Amino acid sequence: MRSFWSRIRGKSPGLDKASERWRSTLGAAAQVPYYSRWKKELHRAQHATDAEARSEALLRLPVVELDYLFQHFYLFREKATVAGKPQDGSSLWPCEARIAVVSPWFHVGGGAKLLLKPELEELRRFAPEVIAGPADALEALATAGDWQQDNCLFAMTALAGVGTPLLSQSARLRLWRAFGVPVYVQLRGFQGELFARECEAHNGLHFDAANVIFQRRPSGELLLTSLGNTRHTVLRLATRLEASIETRICDCGLSSPRLMNLQAVTGRALEHALPSAPSLTALAAAVSDTQGTRAGRLPSR
Ligand SMILES: [Zn+2]
Questions:
Q1: What's the CA-to-centroid distance between 54 and ligand 1, angstroms?
Q2: CB 298 within 8 A of CB 243
Q3: CB count, 10 Å around CB of 145?
Q4: Which residues surround ligand 1, an ion (CB under 5 A)?
Q5: Distance from residue 258's CA to the centre of ligand 1 (Å)
Q6: What's the CA-to-centroid distance between 252 and ligand 1, angstroms?
């Protein structure tokens, strides 16, 4: 008898990267307490094989408000999940360079020197070509003293996350005045997974659909589904960020879609204080560790 699971002739069993990540993300979601009542939808959604079907499948799942996530981290974390893998430090810059990363909120592995505090003297000794860090950590560096211009520094990477400050235009100018090099923004997730990066054209942030799915509320607020974080699995997170999505080819030559005019949603204050530069992931881990002993019951919504 033909097995129910036997493959349809002619269909390739190989999944592309986006489909593979989509499946493992939904699989991880099915394991966390928050999604226990949506298991059927998650199971059905796993079979979506293209971007459009995935986007549509997400519409059957709830939007998670950022305030709610911060308040209930423990509901989005699978108990058995081990610590996430460190991010490859070399992804902080698109080509080989001597990189220093200052106060990131995520664990950075090989390829970059990690500085836990923004200290100019230590940085000078390391003589980086690229300095990466959250926008406020870079600003702290800029005000820490005079940076000698006769060094090998040629760029900075400003890290932005959900719930961390974005680099303002005036801060970009201040960094230019203090360091004399351009700044490029990267949007990353709670585990440091890379969502989008600014290119040399400084015209939006390019993203790869295999890493992240962006949807938009009618208000313009970005809803984010990370396909690279199975430690804190949250789908359709309302980011409190707004942006438009540009699919036309960029001046830099890349054809990948871009987030344009990324900015914080104004008007609605968060009830739960946003963590600043040091560490959203550290906070997430700490909060879920203290909350992990609670029964995984869903609060009434
Ligand atoms: Zn570009």
A1: 25
A2: no
A3: 12
A4: 199, 201, 250, 252, 254
A5: 8
A6: 4
Does the reported pTM lie above 0.70?
yes
Which domains can be identified in the chain, with CATH numbers? 89-291 (3.40.50.12780)
Q: Which residues pair with 238 in a beta bridge?
A: 65, 223
| Residue 301, pLDDT score | 36
- Dist. CA 216 → ligand 1 center (Å): 21
Q: How many CB atoms lie within 10 A of CB 137?
A: 26
Q: Please give the helix or strand (H or E) that residue 216 lies within, else none.
A: strand 212-216
The answer to whether 67 touches 272, Cβ cutoff 8 Å, is: yes
Ligand 1 center–CA 19 separation, angstroms:
25
**Positive/negative CA dihedral, 266, 272, 278, 284:** negative
Strands 155-161 and 130-134 come out as parallel
Contact between 51 and 71 under an 8 Å Cβ cutoff? The reply is no
Cα 249 to ligand 1 centroid, rounded to whole Å: 8
133 Cα: distance to centroid of ligand 1 (angstroms) = 21
How far is the CA of 97 from the CAs of 133, 172, 242, in angstroms?
15, 21, 32
Q: How far is the CA of 153 from the centre of ligand 1 (A)?
A: 22
Distance in angstroms (rounded) separating the CA atoms of residues 75 and 35: 8
CA of 257 to the centre of ligand 1 (A): 9
Contact 24, 193 (CB under 8 A): no
Query: How many whole angstroms separate alpha carbon 31 and alpha carbon 259?
Result: 31
Q: Which pLDDT tens digit goes with each residue over 14-54?
A: 568 899 999 999 999 999 999 999 999 999 999 998 999 99
